[in-house]
Amino acid sequence: MKTIAVAGTFDTKGEEFAYVKDLIESIGMKAYMIHTGVFEPAFRPDVSNQELAAAAGEKIEDVVARKDRAWAMEVLSKGMEKLLPVLYDEGKFDGIISFGGSGGTALVTPAMQALPIGVPKVMVSTMASGNTQQYVGTSDIVMMPSIVDVAGLNSISVKIFTNAVFAIAGMVSFENKKTVPEKPLIAATMFGVTTPCITHAREYLEKRGYEVLVFHATGIGGRSMEMLIRAGFIKGVLDLTTTEWCDELVGGVLNAGPHRSEAASLCKIPQVVSVGALDMVNFGPYDTVPEKFAGRNLYKHNPMVTLMRTTKEENEQIGEKLAEKLNMATEKTVLMLPLKGVSAIDVEGGAFYGPQEDQVLFNTLKSKVNTDVVEIEEMDCNINDPAFAEAAAEKLIEMMK
């Protein structure tokens, strides 16, 4: 029998979660109930809040006595994050669902993120229509808007709860019988302005027996790639689009955080790295560009995205940071430099054509990279030239062999 874990505050929302439990059981599945609330639950759970608190090194009695809601949520969330993967490994459940407002969502989603990719995870939340990055992270959590607050049973909430339960029931019930032949997995990074390069490299690699996962270098894409490398899925990295460093260092909206470009080096995974789209910083609509950047070279990529050309000074800073990350490698790393432009609009006549800015970037990298561990390859072409894509792919194949 398939089992769905249901996590939530059974003290304050007992009626709602009892309904969900009954609904799951009515379709022939088992409900595995995990109580994340501070006080006594409305019904007996399979996993108590005492167990969650203990997993976090605390006693639930102390949590109650302290009367600090924020601390209580922190303790229970930490315990949930530690205990949930253990329960999954023990075969206690096949997928997990939860319902909540901002507090309930923040309490349960870190634990969902700790589960392996592919385990069904559904979070019905009042926060689902906004920026969900903090809740989803680099995981595959499905967030579903609750429309109304999770507060009682009514004509709207019952319909939403039912749809959510049927959705996760489908996820855990059906197994895709079509299998994909196992091939060595390669991670590649792409942006709109480096698409021709990555598309050509991907096709080149696939013809030679590799499977290529392409990550959109929009911040979450870079973080997702780093996570999968650390998790051991990836055998080779074609990180040709490192543009997220522009946003991290200059102040754009698509940064991947300070640990971007580390995983392959730390895990000793063969990697070919380049400088794709390091000519641009990303912002939202044109009128959202910070006032301090008035007078800069701005380009309307589309109505929702405005690009800003990086300067010589910024390129020096970006080059130093990328070199710092590359120097973490101990083996099998190549840095490829396309001397005639780092993006589709960094070409002669293009909006961001900047040979002087690019030269500062290239010179900084060549002076800062430790060539004892990193091989530098220069090519007299634009990053999107097929010859560059093939050379990068072939370099990676050589290292992976």
Automatic annotation (TrEMBL):
Keyword Membrane among UniProt keywords: no
Record bears the keyword ATP-binding: yes
Classification via Pfam families: UPF0261, UPF0261_C
PANTHER family associated with the record: UPF0261 DOMAIN PROTEIN (AFU_ORTHOLOGUE AFUA_1G10120)
Upper lineage: Bacteria, Bacillati, Bacillota, Clostridia, Lachnospirales
InterPro entries to which the protein is assigned, alphabetical: Tobamovirus_resist_UPF0261 (IPR051353), UPF0261 (IPR008322), UPF0261_C (IPR056778), UPF0261_N (IPR044122)
Organism the protein comes from: Diplocloster agilis
GO molecular function, one term: ATP binding
Segments forming domain UPF0261: 2-176, 183-400
Annotated keywords: ATP-binding, Nucleotide-binding
Database matches in Gene3D superfamilies: Uncharacterised protein family UPF0261, NC domain, Uncharacterised protein family UPF0261, NN domain
Top-level taxon of origin: Bacteria
Protein name per UniProt: Tm-1-like ATP-binding domain-containing protein
